[in-house]
Amino acid sequence: MALLFHSSGDSPEAWKAALLALEPGLDFRIFPETGNPAEIEFALGWAFPPGALAALPNLKCLCSLGAGVDHVFRDSTLPKGLPVVRLVDDAMADDMGDWVALNVLRFHRRDPEYRRFQTERRWVRLDQPYAKDRRVGILGIGFLGQAVARRLSAFGFPLAGWSRRPKRVPGVESFHGPEQLDAFLARTDILAILVPATPATENLMDARRLARLPKGAAIVNAARGRIIVDEALLAALDSGHISVAALDVFREEPLPSEHPYWCHPKVLVFPHIAAYTDPETAAAQVVDNLRRARAGAPLQNLVDMQAGY
Amino acid sequence: MALLFHSSGDSPEAWKAALLALEPGLDFRIFPETGNPAEIEFALGWAFPPGALAALPNLKCLCSLGAGVDHVFRDSTLPKGLPVVRLVDDAMADDMGDWVALNVLRFHRRDPEYRRFQTERRWVRLDQPYAKDRRVGILGIGFLGQAVARRLSAFGFPLAGWSRRPKRVPGVESFHGPEQLDAFLARTDILAILVPATPATENLMDARRLARLPKGAAIVNAARGRIIVDEALLAALDSGHISVAALDVFREEPLPSEHPYWCHPKVLVFPHIAAYTDPETAAAQVVDNLRRARAGAPLQNLVDMQAGY
Questions:
Q1: Which of these, B15, B79, B89, lies nearest to B53 by C-alpha position?
Q2: For residues A197 and B305, what is the distance between their CA atoms, to the nearest angstrom?
């Protein structure tokens, strides 16, 4: 059984080393050096070029090189019925939780205003609401969203989560489905976006939904760029309805140098660094699924291809 | 019994309203409108002018308008044996914990570098250590330091605390006394300073102690400006031994506009906003001590005048 690897952002050498440490005989190949396509039974990667996987007649499993699988759906030639799994990695969830908590705290403590005052050498003390009066909403309260909730609960923020289907998370007020989204947004002062990118979440935060947030709300996007309609966010920032946004993800990455986000005074730009996929911590679950695929056993962290995540 | 209030930074009206709501008959006077000095039995305030309290023959208690009492010791005419109490306020500890956690996370996630990259429109992804590999040290692990520890423990940072006397705090490695300070500093990547300002902590972080921190360490000062020797910190920042510092407190406040901290690229200046004293939450304990002083009962949150806090 051979494994085919492809990613433009991850190191094949690091993945090869981590996987071979656990599975010494593994035949690790790097796309496009596929060799005999019939020998490839497992694909590991991010955004294989369309058609690349359809050319593998004995492929048993595609493992996404991250928590998101939106890249998989961009390949319309993906073999029907091919099982797709994703990485569900504690280390990645921890990093995501840390990054989101940093930005929630930053906005809670009015840090952008203090940073501006420093450049002006101005000693200005602002009113500071208590954490108990700052409502944080987690849009997408799955594996990653719950890592955020665990951290923020130590601060006393009133927490709510929104998910497609009802979910019970201790200490988090639960909202679900499209019909409860407006109510969720209306009670949210700081919105942390962690939903998977699917056809149902594309452009979810458009002008109408941004307007549902209370005036002065802040946004933290750790999910995918295309969940937010950029023009709507820029308009809401300029009108003051949204006070500030921390964005780690964009429709086009790297963010083009002429994009208005780069120099917008109310936007913090991050180069998609909230959570990295670390071969050291994630290799074990890849090897586990590799063995399961080989043995015909049920795969772990299988993607629901209907739901899109 | 009359109460005499003085502070240049707190609102007498807000304190009067909060105290009278709990003690409607209270004779609330604002310095220097002292009236008959013999009628004043309770003083509430911050940095009464030297001599002001010595002029009150029947004063039974001085209550500091905050957690710190260093301002009390600047008055050499303070009557010997006058009981001094301080505010020990959960809301203040929560705010302090939030602000310190924000700055620890900021440095952990290399945020200052990303902020600079944004100004240069550069998409640069840096290595990111795990929280479990980032050792946080809390210099002063009392009431406020423990509020910091509770928050940071949700992130998985290895935590240590240093205090004058041994203290056991769950999940926090304990160091104490001058003889263990160097070992505490040597294991600390991000140092959060929360010790009270006393003769023993003045200039505690001098060039020698800063050099004990590992190369690249970060500093968060939420305590008092004079715990750090400014010239030593500036030199350590310029040499790169200390990578960055978030400072909420200074030897002179407001920080003079010509001070090098204002425009130092590795210093974040805050105008002493980590935690405010809120009359709404703190009035109850002032009234409690007022009644105790009146009844001759033991006071709460009494300051150890030998230790200086």
A1: B79
A2: 61
Q: Categorize the per-residue pLDDT at A238 as very low, low, confident or very high, splitting at 50, 70 and 90.
A: very high
Of A93, A65, A62, A87, the residue nearest A305 (C-alpha): A62
Active site residue B108: no
**A29 neighbors A19 (Cβ within 8 angstroms):** no
Mean pLDDT of A286-300: 96
Which residue on chain B is closest to A276 by alpha carbon?
B128
Torsion sign, CA atoms A232, A235, A241, A243: positive
- Model's pTM, two decimal places? 0.95
Residue A97, min C-alpha distance to chain B (Å): 8
CB-facing half-sphere around the CA of A199: CA atoms within 13 A: 6
Give every strand in the sheet of B136-139, ordered side by side.
B172-176, B159-163, B136-139, B190-193, B217-221, B242-247, B267-269
Please name the residue ranges forming H helices in A23-130: 90-108, 111-119
Q: For chain B (length 309 residues), average pLDDT per consecutive 10?
A: 93 97 97 97 96 97 93 94 95 97 98 98 97 98 97 98 96 97 98 96 98 98 98 98 98 97 98 94 96 96 93
Which residues in chain A touch residue B270, judged by CB atoms under 8 angstroms apart?
A: 114
The catalytic position among B224, B226, B291, B292 is: B224
ipTM computed for the complex: 0.95
In terms of Cβ atoms closer than 10 Å to its own Cβ (0-12, 13-18, 19+), residue A180 is middle
In the structure encoding, which two tokens stand for residue B47, read together? 């940095």
Say which DSSP state A70 is in. G
